């Protein structure tokens, strides 16, 4: 069995992965949203489910909210509820994609009234962050156009800068804005924030408290995502990850499921660039569980990130640097692959037990009775928001 050094275990001990509240709601594709028994009926129940993931893995101490999907009357009560269950509220995600007013844009809209409405939504999100104790406001924009000539792309960039500046000015001293990019969908011809370069340009113009969010599912097939990770870390502008995996589009599948090797390559660059256990770089999941059970889906996800982090930490960087310097192509590649091929699961299981956690969190959750309980107790769970 591979053993993990005290340094590696120390790095793993500090790892924290934020869960998205919407992973616990029902979601689907534009063809069908399948209802899953036991689905939470309100944000309080979503937090309770997220707390189960942390309880069994020790890996997921915070939960991200999405406004308006997680609107409640009393955010202080939601915060206390989370803390009572051993977790905290994390990133607040804004939403300017489910209102008819935003058909042709929100923060980029030509009409000042609509643009102001979208800005005000973000200011309201920051008000919520003040109550929940959240640090990050995450902005993903569903804005762009479908046909060449439909819009003045440059004017939209200018309006985006103006809108983001107003939002940025409202941030508290310890709050941040992270701007997420996505190369397509729901707009298909042009997207206002399609790539890391555009996100970088926009956040760089705002200031230190604005960073880029990299969603691993938001790139064209074949994109070298680890190169982007390297570059953003080098520039000090990688604010957060939305982890998930994709085969074809924005699939939001379990991280590390579609392409474990890609996850390894990304985490190698995270470690190389000082992004691991760095408070400036938030690890989050952005996933939806359409056909599988949601809590074990999230448990599987955080374990996948942990396992791949352990493998990235096992990379013999000294030997790799020597091989690279000597231009020994095959040796360098072999050293890299050696780390990827290690099965760290038995060592992690043993280590979990030493920390009072279950050796097998998936099995322990299945045996806990929680799933049966929520399936019996909850009737009429809500959708994650997509079909709402
Ligand atoms: C849309 C999206 C995006 C956001 C999430 C809330 O693509 O998946 O990644 O982070 O919705
Ligand atoms: Mn995302
Ligand atoms: Mn997405």
TrEMBL record:
Pfam families: RhaA. It is an enzyme of class 5 (isomerase). Transmembrane segments: none annotated. The gene is rhaI. This is L-rhamnose isomerase. One of its GO terms (molecular function) is L-rhamnose isomerase activity. Its EC number is 5.3.1.14. GO terms for biological process: L-lyxose metabolic process; rhamnose catabolic process. The keyword Oxidoreductase does not apply.
């Amino acid at each position: 069995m591979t053993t993990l050094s005290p340094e590696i275990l120390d790095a793993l001990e500090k790892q924290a992965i934020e869960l998205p509240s919407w992973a616990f709601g029902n979601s689907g594709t534009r063809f069908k949203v399948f209802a899953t028994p036991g689905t939470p009926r309100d944000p309080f129940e979503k937090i309770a489910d997220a707390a189960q993931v942390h309880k069994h893995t020790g890996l997921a101490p915070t939960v991200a909210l999405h406004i308006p999907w997680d609107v409640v009357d009393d955010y202080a009560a939601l915060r206390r509820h989370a803390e009572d269950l051993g977790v905290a509220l994390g990133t607040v995600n804004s939403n300017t994609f489910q209102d008819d007013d935003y058909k042709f844009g929100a923060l980029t809209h030509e009409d000042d009234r609509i643009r102001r409405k979208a800005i005000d939504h973000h200011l309201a999100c920051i008000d919520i962050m003040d109550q929940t104790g959240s640090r990050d406001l995450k902005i993903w924009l569903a804005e762009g156009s479908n046909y060449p000539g439909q819009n003045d792309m440059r004017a939209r960039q200018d309006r985006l800068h103006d809108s983001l500046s107003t939002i940025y000015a409202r941030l508290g001293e310890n709050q941040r804005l992270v701007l997420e990019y996505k190369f397509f969908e729901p707009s298909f011809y042009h997207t206002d924030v399609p790539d890391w370069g555009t996100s970088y340009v926009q956040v760089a113009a705002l200031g230190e408290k604005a960073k880029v969010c990299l969603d691993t599912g938001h790139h064209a097939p074949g994109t070298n995502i680890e190169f982007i990770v390297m570059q953003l870390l080098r520039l000090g502008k990688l604010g957060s990850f939305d982890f998930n995996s994709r085969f074809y589009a924005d699939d939001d599948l379990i991280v590390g499921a579609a392409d474990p090797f890609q996850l390894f390559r990304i985490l190698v660059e995270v470690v190389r660039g000082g992004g691991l256990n760095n408070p400036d770089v938030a690890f989050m999941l952005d996933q939806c569980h359409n056909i599988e059970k949601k809590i074990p889906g999230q448990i599987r996800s955080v374990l996948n990130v942990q396992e791949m982090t352990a493998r990235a930490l096992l990379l013999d960087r000294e030997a790799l640097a020597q091989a690279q310097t000597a231009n020994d192509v095959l040796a360098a590649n072999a050293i890299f692959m050696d780390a990827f091929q290690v099965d760290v699961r038995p060592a992690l299981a043993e280590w979990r037990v030493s920390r009072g956690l279950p050796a097998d969190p998936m099995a322990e959750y299945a045996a806990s009775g929680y799933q049966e309980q929520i399936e019996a107790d909850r009737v009429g769970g809500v959708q994650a928001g997509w079909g709402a």
